[in-house]
């Protein structure tokens, strides 16, 4: 496999930044080749972006040594085979249609969004999206920002139809919190990134909920209302093209095979282009310090297909 020696230093820096260690020489050679291919894709895309052909830039991140197929395989955190949870605490969002929506909403400005987290190699995006909404809801109502436990959901929300590191749904996470009469804080129940036995501590019920609200399918207006007037909202997306996202407003060929759960924490407009503000769970090195701005108004990547928030 031919490698460009001019990239040796950049390769070493990237491995150091993302703590990449390859035990076998063949493995490193292959990863280096994939990384160089991705780097060339990034450079070509960004040249076109500079010419006004794209609204976002690509960048190296922790996924840059994966092929597109490998990256898709890692997106196992959402289970499209699971039907949306009905009843047992769910209500349907009543869309107004007459409410005047603010042009810009960003829940981060209220101090009620926790720092970006990293799910690691566990397919627990569903838990991170649900926890993000719960953390913001608790803060909005109490003015206390408490970091809640994704691991509590990974280990304990199986009876509600979730599968730990093999996927689940945010609404089924809300159902667990409702039926369990609460969940633990991160301090009491820290994240391990792997399936374990349920260790919920009833002495630390960090948040309780009355239920959750499901939004109408594929209705971005309803999603805008919910984000503007209620709380950050969990959304499901087809993230298959997110692997090299760096910054700007993501607007790229994208399917609707939902495979990843994230949190919509706001929306806005830049240069006439409306966008969502998406909080991801891939750590701060991905995207805009762990966030993505995504084109709004075209249901890109199925962003409004399945959305819900706790109450």
From TrEMBL:
Pfam families: Inhibitor_I29, Peptidase_C1. GO terms for molecular function: cysteine-type peptidase activity. Keywords: Disulfide bond, Hydrolase, Protease, Thiol protease, Zymogen. Residues 101-311 form the Peptidase C1A papain C-terminal domain. GO terms for biological process: proteolysis. Residues 11-71 form the Cathepsin propeptide inhibitor domain. PROSITE patterns: THIOL_PROTEASE_ASN, THIOL_PROTEASE_CYS, THIOL_PROTEASE_HIS. It comes from the Eukaryota. Belongs to the peptidase C1 family. This is Cathepsin L1-like. It comes from Podarcis lilfordi.
């Amino acid at each position: 496999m031919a490698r460009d020696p001019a990239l040796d230093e950049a390769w070493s820096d990237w491995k150091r930044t993302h703590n990449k260690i390859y035990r076998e020489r063949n493995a490193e050679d292959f990863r280096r080749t994939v990384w160089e291919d991705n780097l060339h894709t990034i450079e070509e895309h960004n040249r076109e972006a500079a010419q006004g052909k794209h609204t976002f830039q690509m960048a190296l991140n922790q996924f840059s040594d994966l092929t597109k197929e490998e990256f898709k395989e890692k997106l196992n955190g959402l289970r499209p085979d699971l039907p949306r949870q009905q009843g047992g605490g769910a209500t349907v969002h009543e869309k107004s249609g007459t409410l005047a929506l603010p042009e810009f909403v960003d829940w981060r400005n209220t101090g009620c969004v926790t720092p970006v987290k990293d799910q690691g190699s566990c397919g627990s995006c569903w838990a991170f999206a649900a926890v993000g909404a719960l953390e913001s809801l608790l803060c909005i109502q109490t003015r206390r920002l408490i970091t809640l436990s994704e691991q509590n959901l990974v280990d304990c929300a199986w009876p509600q139809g979730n599968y730990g590191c093999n996927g689940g749904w945010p609404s089924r996470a809300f159902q667990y919190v409702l039926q369990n009469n609460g969940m633990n804080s991160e301090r009491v129940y820290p994240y391990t990134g792997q399936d374990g036995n349920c260790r919920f501590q009833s002495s630390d019920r960090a948040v309780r909920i009355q239920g959750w609200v499901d939004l109408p399918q594929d209705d971005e207006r309803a999603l805008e209302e919910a984000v503007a007037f209620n709380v950050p909202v969990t959304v499901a997306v087809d993230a298959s093209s997110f692997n090299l996202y760096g910054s700007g407003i993501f607007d790229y060929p994208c399917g609707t095979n939902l495979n990843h759960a994230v949190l919509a924490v706001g929306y806005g407009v830049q240069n006439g282009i409306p966008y969502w503000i998406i909080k991801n769970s891939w750590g701060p090195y991905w995207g805009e310090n762990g966030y993505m701005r995504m084109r709004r108004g075209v249901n890109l990547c199925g962003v409004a297909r399945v959305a819900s928030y706790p109450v």
